[in-house]
Please model this.
Amino acid sequence: MIHSLPGNFPFVAAVVLLGIGLYILIFRRNLIKIVMGIAILGSSINLFLITLGYRIDGDAPIYTEVPSELMVLPVVQALTLTNIVIGVATSALILSLVIRIYRHTGTLDSVKSRRMKG
Amino acid sequence: MRQFFGWLSLVVLMVFLVIGALFIMRPFGEPPSVMDDYIIDNAQEEAASNNVVAAVLFDYRGFDTLGEATVLFAAVTGALLVLRASHKKEET
Amino acid sequence: MSKIVRTVANQLILFVVIFGLYVIIQGHVTPGGGFQGGAIIASGAVLLIVASGSQEIKTWLRERRLSVVESSGALLFILLAFAGIGTVFFFNFLVGSRLFGGIPPVGPNPGDVWTGGVIPLMNLGVGLKVMAGLSAVVLALALFSGGEELEE
Model:
């Protein structure tokens, strides 16, 4: 079913996700929405990495009971796995900083909480 | 003024990336695979495992897994450090 | 949460932990491995925290024990990487020996657990690390937002 889609459709999907993530990062002021924008950027890069290593009519690169011996590329899948775990850890760190900012300044707006208080 | 520059830069970047994804990228489904063909053919003899992705993660490219374990450790330590009680001692 | 939710969560945590350990230990035969299994067990810890409240979980899931487990997982990973230093760093020195040393036949085959060399032990180390690290972070977030801070 993949080769009936016109041209390089999965690459365009990754670029659309990148655009959505960049739009959130530039134009939104709520701190929680900015954290979500960073997570969407990470997801778009993971999608791009996976679709770089696809072979048409290929199977998963695991030899246990595999139907045929034509496999997709395994190195790119290992890189994506690493990137997903790093994204989770980065989101946890950023969210803990957001909680501290809210306790200290009382607001979740990124422009109002920029003034330094004592 | 700032909003105008933001929109202009975003639109220019998106047009360039969409044109690049449609016409400049290589066709979808035919990647060049010299290293991966070697790994798929020899992973069962050298790394002795059925799962080629696990063999790549821990045997052929173990340094990347070491770096990722370090990043995970640093992020968990940083998060637990930020969320700690701040003991304010009042001296009279 | 209500009594029904707490009872169901206390019964379900056993199956979640068993499934997570199965995914970790069969990382070299089926899809899965250390990172995926550790995330499954950490989501089981999240289920317990949501169902019973973080003040009750804090008495037996202490941060000191989780930190010891995480550090021992990282140390196991690094010691296994240094053990084959005679040839290269990260050398698979257990292929052909007695522990986890079988070699699978070439081509598609039903998998055998006693293969893989040093890969299942590394999977265990990384699984311990991810499981303890993510559970500690979620517990710290739940305690901090509930008004009570984490004590030393």
Q: What stands out?
A: Chain A has three helices and no strands. Chain A has a mean pLDDT of 89.
